[in-house]
Specification:
The chain is 14% helix and 59% strand. It is mainly β and 171 residues long.
Length: 171
Amino acid sequence: MKNILLTIFLFISFTKLSAGQFSMSAYVYYSVEKIFTLSDNTMVWFWNNKGILTTSFGTNAKSECKGTERHTNNNITEQFFICEATDSQGEKIILEFNSGKGTIDAAVGNFTIVSGSGRWKEVVGVKCIGAYSQITPFENGTFEDATAMWKGKCDVADKTLDRLINYKRNN
């Protein structure tokens, strides 16, 4: 019994000590490149966006995403897209989204960091959660230049977070 309690205590202590968190925010312009109408209530959208990405530890980047969504009755029922961000040191992070649920105006979903260089190598494979909200709708009569904001949150070990924060690029 003593060993079980000790194991539980160590597990809880380790979990709390090793849990760090960082967030990312993006502000984008997006446009729809093509819409396929499958039925009266189902459409598939192919879209892209460009914007800026910031992190809770002070790294800034330019970003670009391309993807597709299936909309049924104005709800997102399927989604897949990839975003690439290049930070001020020229290092890249690539995020993959494939499970968003919501509407055209707002959605939540999981994403995975699938590739990265420099500091971002530390977090390849990390699964995160994010949400977006439309700021302004598409321009009148078009599917162009809508704006949105997005926020993502990733849980990592404290030591990983420290390395992200204190990263120094080798030249």
